[in-house]
Structure formats: structure tokens, C-alpha cells
Specification:
single chain; 130 residues; mainly alpha; 5 helices; 0% strand
């Protein structure tokens, strides 16, 4: 399976999300109805830094063979990030007012979780470049 597209898309998604919440934490908190003060703003910025870092990892690993035993730590970390995130987001949907943004992020996280799960639990096929 070619994973270059997967790594590029996940890197772009996490970078966009990470940069947005790193530089706009107060606005994000106001948007979701929380008070933008104190340690909560710091935690949101740390989450943004984590997402940007993960995006850089995926971008730099985009040319590697990933799956099976190859680049297994990268595949495992991505699978668990997206799977746990998808479960949390889907679980929160019925309890919260369903915002279109939350539904969209839950769908994207679920798609990446499934895709990284396939990559992680199948043997990669090395594609010869022409």
C-alpha cells in the first residue's frame, strides 16, 4: 500500500489544526463556550504544539515504507492518536450540542484511524518507482 498520500494528508490536517489552535487559543475557547483564561489557554497551546510536532513527523516520514514492521512506531503512534481521538469525539457527539465542526473533525479522525489501522495491521507492498 502506498502511504505517501496518507502521510501527507495527515500532516496537512494536523498542521492546520495545530497552527490554528496554537495561535488562536482564546478565540477557540470562546467559540466552544469556555472562558479563555489561565491554564486552559496554556493547555490548548500545548495541544497545538503537539499537533504541529506530529505533523512534522508525518511530513518527514512520508517517503518511508510504512506498515507491518517498517516504521512501526510512526504507524502505531498515528493509529492510536486518531483512534483514541475518534472514539472521544464520537462519544461526545450525543452528549453535546452537535456542532458541524465537531462532526467534521470526528469524521476526519475516524477516516484516518481506519486508514492507519489498515496500514499498521497489513504488510506493506513496496512499489517500484519508474
Amino acid at each position: 500500500m502506498k502511504t505517501r498520500i496518507l502521510m501527507m494528508l495527515s500532516a496537512a490536517f494536523m498542521a492546520a489544526l495545530g497552527v490554528a489552535i496554537t495561535f488562536l487559543p482564546q478565540e477557540l475557547l470562546v467559540h466552544v463556550g469556555a472562558r479563555p483564561e489561565g491554564v486552559l489557554v496554556l493547555l490548548i497551546q500545548l495541544l497545538g504544539a503537539l499537533l504541529v510536532s506530529f505533523a512534522m513527523l508525518n511530513w518527514m516520514a512520508r517517503g518511508n515504507l510504512i506498515g507491518g514492521i517498517y516504521s512501526r512506531p510512526v504507524a502505531v503512534a498515528n493509529f492510536f492518536h486518531f483512534a483514541i481521538g475518534a472514539v472521544a469525539l464520537v462519544k461526545a457527539l450525543p452528549a453535546q450540542r452537535i456542532a458541524l465542526e465537531v462532526v467534521a473533525v470526528a469524521a476526519i479522525y475516524s477516516a484516518f484511524a481506519i486508514w492507519f489501522g489498515i496500514v499498521l495491521f497489513t504488510h506493506p507492498i513496496k512499489v517500484e518507482r519508474k
